[in-house]
User: What shape does this take?
Amino acid sequence: MLGWLKRNRSDTPATNVPDASAGIPRWPLETWRGGLPSDGPGYLALCLTPAFPEEPEPRNLRDGEALDRIIEVARTDGSTSPAMAAVVEDLLAEPRYAALDSLYTWLAPVYRGTDRQLEVIGQGLRTCPRKYWLLDLAGIAMLQRGRGAEALYYWAHSVSNAESVGDGRKASAYDFLIVTAHVLGERGATKKFRARADQADHPQTVLDDEYTALVQRAFRKGTKAMRTVVQSLAQRIPA
Assistant: This one.
C-alpha cells in the first residue's frame, strides 16, 4: 500500500518546477523528427510555459486586394493548388503583407504531408507578430502525422497565446481540444472548451469525420501528463 502511494505521488506532475528546457520554442520540423516526451512532468512544463511571444498585429487580410486574389484562385484552381501557393508567396513578398499570419493559413495546406508544410509553418512562427493561428496549424500538421504529444503541445500554446491577447474565443485550436479532451475522458475540460468555443452542449459536428478519427487514433492511449495538460488548460480559461 505504501509503495503504491509513493508511486502515485511520484507520478504527480510538479507544476511549480518547470523543466529546464521549457520556454524554448520547438519548431515543427525539429519536433516532428525529434518527438516530445509525453509521460512525465517535463511535458506539462513544455506545454504550459510560454515559448512563442505574441506581438501586436494591426494588419488584416482584408486590407487591399489580397483576399480577393486568394478567393479568385480558390474558385478557379482550388485552395490547395500550386496556383494558390504562387499567389500567397507573391503576397508575402510584398512589404505590406510580409509576415502576415493569416496568409500562412492558406499556404501551409497546399503542402500537406510534406516537409515543406512544416517549413512554411516554422517560417511563419519565426517571423509573424501573431502566432496563435500558426501554432494551431502546427498542431494540425502533427495530428496528420499521428503525433498526439506534439499536436497537443502546439494546441496548448495556441489557445494560451490567443487568451493572452484577448482572442480566446477566436482560437480554432479549441475545436481540436474539445475532441481531444473527450477522447482522454476529461468531461469537465470538454465542457469548458465547448463553452469557450461557443459550441452547443452537444453539437452535431465539432470536427469533420476525418479529423475526428485522427484525434481518436492519436489520443486513444493518452498519458497522464496529456490529461493533466488538458485539465490545466481548462482551468486557465477566464471565468
